[in-house]
Amino acid sequence: MAPENKNNEHEVVSRLRTVEGVLRRWDPVGVQPGRFAPADEYDRYAPQIVSMVESGCSADALIAHLEQLAVETMGVGSNLRASAKFAAEILRTLRPHV
Predict the structure, then answer these.
(1) Mean of pLDDT over the chain
(2) Helical axes 46-54 vs 80-94, angle rounded to 10°
């Protein structure tokens, strides 16, 4: 594998791990991943979130996505404040130059 491909692969994995960490703290179900649920409880949502951010989604679109995951996918109540807080953290982390 060419060195530039290894660097790109490392960057992709790093971005996914970063979002996974944020999602574990977001924890809309309140299961405390790694304590009362598998540590990877929310990891499956990270690839789409990274893709959304890389595609230039707005903060509002990311907040709406987190809300949709919580309400429609996980069946818990809306927490717009938490979704906004963690969406902002994801954007700051993945788009530090913005």
Answers:
(1) 93
(2) 60
**Single-letter code of the amino acid located at 69:** L
Write down the residue that tokens 């982390």 correspond to. 93
How many distinct structural domains can be found in the chain?
1
22 alpha-carbon distance from chain centroid:
6
Q: How confident is the model at residue 98 (pLDDT cuts 50, 70, 90)?
A: low
- Give the pLDDT confidence of 50-86 residue by residue, as tens digits: 999 999 999 999 999 999 999 999 999 999 999 999 9
Q: Both tokens of residue 73?
A: 């996918």
Using CA atoms of 18, 21, 27, 28 in order, give the dihedral in degrees to the nearest 10. Answer: 0
- Could you tell me which residues come within 8 angstroms of residue 10 by beta carbon, excluding any fewer than 6 positions away? none
Q: Which residues contact 79 (CB under 8 A, 6 or more apart)?
A: 28, 70
Rg, Å, the chain Cα set: 14
Write out the residue range of the structural domain in which residue 54 sits: 3-94
